Amino acid sequence: MSKFVIENRIWDKEESLPRGELKALQSAKLRETVERVQNVPFYKEVFSRTGITPGKIQSLDDLQRLPFTTKADLRAEYPLRMLAVDRAEVARYHGSSGTTGKPTMVAYTQNDLKTWANLCARFLTGGGLLPQHTVQIAFGYGLFTGGFGLHYGVEHAGASVIPAAAGNTPKQIMLMMDMQVDALVCTPSYALNISEFIIQNDIPRNALNLKYAHFGGEPWTEDMRTRIEDEMGILCFNNYGLSEVIGPGVSGECAVRDGMHISEDAFIVECINPETLEPIAPGEEGELVFTSLCKEAMPIIRYRTRDIASLNPEPCACGRTTVRMSRITGRSDDMLIIKGVNVYPSQVEQALLRVKGTAPHYQIVVERPDRKDVATVKVEMTEESFSSSMKEMQELKDKIGRAIQGITGLRMNIELVSPNSLERFIGKAQRVVDHRKIV
Amino acid sequence: MKLKQLSVFLENKPGRLRELCALLAENQINIITLSLADTEQFGILRLIVKDYDKAKTLLESNGFVAKLTEVIAVELDDQPGGLSEILSIEEASGISVEYMYAFVIKSGEKAVLLFRFDDMDKAVAALQQANLPILDSVELYQRAEG
């Protein structure tokens, strides 16, 4: 275990407001948000269809009168019809995997970027960050919100960043040693790779000055936490976010590490039954739904995350009054997270449609044989795609692989199988077999 | 001048090849010759059978992917240098072999080579020009039956 002890620090006063005050703040910001989304044709249309006028939304009690927003809605409004400001006011765009070939684009004004950096600084501070610390970010920098979100959060907290970006494990470790890095930011599965490399190369623990890590981007388990903490001698903290809501910074663990504090001055959280859409009691699992309260460029109303977790409204020993969410224990749709990348089976389906002669029957098998995610797509042969030439068969596999990588950004193994060998389903097909034990 | 070869996709699973052979046997389909190309994960079985249409339907109705592919059969004396000569001719015409296999006919004096070239029509023309005996299907089956 780590000898590192973190002091309990709270970054913003909004994290520990009396509940009544927090609710009043949320109500006021909700009214503003409902006004603001009148600039978005999508919301304007939905509101008028359902007979909602901004005046009808006065407090949190009226929240349930508002419609949900889904990933499908965002896809339909691609790329920028969800914007509530002129494009001239946008300072940055990010994106996340779409269910098909196109990503879902999100936008930030200068103010949004400040809000976002502050929310990241908040959970980082809750999990040990001090201004004198050096933080290495081993997340991808790009459309993915992880890299840039955490980067500006660390800077905003007054600490220093090494933007190492994802990959190249030996270089990551070299930087951590030479720069005497205090904290690591990455996906938990990548931390497992780093840890394995350190062990395999007999790098002594005291060569590193690493004290703690903040993990996000994919679901993980307490077992993984124990393993990484034991192997690396550090403390590991969980954080949560999604680009549609803002990116990382929606919630994160404090020193108590018993659930992730949701920044409720910036988001209203609900937990619903994904089938009936009815609210779920505290402590029970349901789908999380978020409404943004201070986003300018792309405010979002009751966004269905499809992430399954439970909420804990009990006060926390750290002094924060904000509600805590559990780890994500599953999805209410079929999205997969492979190597930290969101993947929908429908993306694989779309890739197969682009390769002539391939069957619509496929299966995605995900495994984690040696700490690394491996995805294999099984594709049934057809007379059209089959060739007596081995070269052409290899080309077919390469073509399918490239089409999938083009859409998902991930390299997957392709396995050609006999026709009718994959299980057929009545109704919703089970396209995915996930052998990883991550929840 | 081109012959029909029956190509079958075989997933590498225990018993798959035996299953296929049993099917052909039960239906009195004789395999004149065959070749199997395989990778770790799947194989391609190439068969020369007389009743290829019947065999194809039979295999398909039993869950196999089967396809008819054209190949060329060349008859040669069973002695050194025969294959080398054919390959020289095709190479000179810029044609590549995709795959090939061979069998010795019953009399034991002649061998039949089966070829799949990347350009089948050009390959036939080049072989004809060199006066090499290309077998048609009737001739091939005659040879096979001795």
UniProtKB/TrEMBL annotation, chain A:
Residues 95-291 form the AMP-dependent synthetase/ligase domain. It comes from the Bacteria. GO terms for biological process: phenylacetate catabolic process. It catalyses: 2-phenylacetate + ATP + CoA = phenylacetyl-CoA + AMP + diphosphate. The keyword Membrane does not apply. Residues 340-436 form the AMP-dependent ligase C-terminal domain. One of its GO terms (molecular function) is nucleotide binding. Keywords: Ligase, Nucleotide-binding, Phosphopantetheine, Phosphoprotein. Its EC number is 6.2.1.30. Pathway: Aromatic compound metabolism; phenylacetate degradation. Belongs to the phenylacetyl-CoA ligase family. Catalyzes the activation of phenylacetic acid (PA) to phenylacetyl-CoA (PA-CoA). Monomer. This is Phenylacetate-coenzyme A ligase. It comes from Pontiella sulfatireligans. The lineage of its organism: Bacteria, Pseudomonadati, Kiritimatiellota, Kiritimatiellia, Kiritimatiellales.
TrEMBL record, chain B:
Gene3D superfamilies: VC0802-like (3.30.2130.10). Transmembrane segments: none annotated. InterPro entries: ACT-like_dom_sf, ACT_dom, ACT_dom_pair. It holds the Pfam family ACT_8. Residues 5-79 form the ACT domain. Signal peptide: none annotated. PANTHER family: ACETOLACTATE SYNTHASE, SMALL SUBUNIT. This is ACT domain-containing protein. It comes from Pontiella sulfatireligans.
